Amino acid sequence: MSAALNESQREALIRKxxxxxxxxxxxxxxxxxxxxxxxxxxxxxxxxxIAQDELGHALLYLGLRSELDGSDPDRVAMxxxxxxxxxxxxxxxxxxxxxxxxxxxxxxxxxxxLWLEAAAQSTYAPLAEVAQKALREEKFHLQHTALWxxxxxxGTEESQRRTQxxxxxxxxxxxxxxxxxxxxAELVEAGILPDIAAVRVRWEALMxxxxxxxxxxxxxxxAFPGPSRENHTEHLAPLLATMQKVxxxxxxxxxx
Amino acid sequence: MEKDGEPSTIDHQLSTxxxxxxQVPDPEIxxxxxxxxxxxxxxxxxxxxxxxxxxxxFSGCPALHVIRQSIEDAVRALGVQDVEVRSTxxxxxxxxxxxxxxxERLRQYGIAPPAPAGEGxxxxxxxxxxxxxxxxxxxxxxxxxxxxxxxxxYVCGSCKEPFEGFKSV
Lengths: 256, 169
Prior knowledge:
The complex is a heterodimer of chains A (256) and B (169).
Chain A: H1 7-32, H2 41-69, H3 73-78, H4 89-92, H5 98-119, H6 125-153, H7 157-170, H8 184-189, H9 196-214, H10 236-243, H11 245-249
Helix pairs in contact in A: 1-2, 2-6, 5-6, 5-7, 5-9
Chain B: H1 5-21, E1 40-46, E2 49-54, H2 64-76, E3 82-87, H3 100-109, E4 111-112, E5 139-143, E6 151-156, E7 162-166
Parallel strand pairs in B: 2-3, 4-7
Antiparallel strand pairs in B: 1-2, 5-6, 6-7
């Protein structure tokens, strides 16, 4: 069932899988920063669960990459520098307050769920399998964060103000989620990857329905396509320093 | 040796291996086994080698290494030297594979069994869940994520008991 890839398709798919995994790893780290700090115990647990799922997805993507180039997922995650990471700026921004964290997670979860739903139809069977698997988990993230955004937006004056502010600050960064990687068009042509522009149309409709119609938030700002995925804010390097510290100090640790 | 008895010996060995795997508890919910959960997809005997294929429940499940090792240990305990444990994502694991008997054991243990998963995966609403204690549908979801990736937290509006519900995946 899986079409044989030519060399340029293989390279483009490696780039795409790495970008997908990088978004998951960095967002999981930001979510993990709430451990011990979330407003209530249940949310401490919820964000740790979500982070764990996102890391699981990253591992699936890096497993697919490994089949293509023999790379070691642990080394890819733990021994690259900021400039080699290809996550979007959206996921590397500091965790901010609770509203910022929930709005970002909602924007991302909806994108991820819709992308996975489309990718489940991939002609490249290993990707279709991974997408079907991850989609079953992702729906819980989306349900959770959609509810939180609603609760905050329709809650107190203070929570509404913070949620609106978070949406205004984060929205411009969402455009980068829908940028293509080099060679992606060829993979879309072959039915290996979903057309990200079509995913974006569905995503925007969902955003308007939930954020504007249900949560009465203003969606006034434009999302401008940012720089490419190789360009990062000043926030990524310190994040990686923390995340990779143990792996770099004890590079041969295996079981612990 | 290619006589009638040969296939039945293999069948016998296969059923012995399945029986051994049915004794391996799910590390996070020991009231059910990995076979009850539908995680063991295939057992193959090829000469001296036994291959077991299993499918992970949640991709980020921290118990995966334990499960893989438990499968290997269970087969080795039968005297098999050459054991291969493989994992597959196809078809993706679904709670619909949890057998009826195991669902009842989950319920008695206090965990609401999963509702049918169905195909409509992207929805902003949680699936209906019944209190495992009194059977009421008057329940409130208090947290979407519980002590493990596979469970949610509820409180029953009828008997007032808090309980865990298995996610419908």
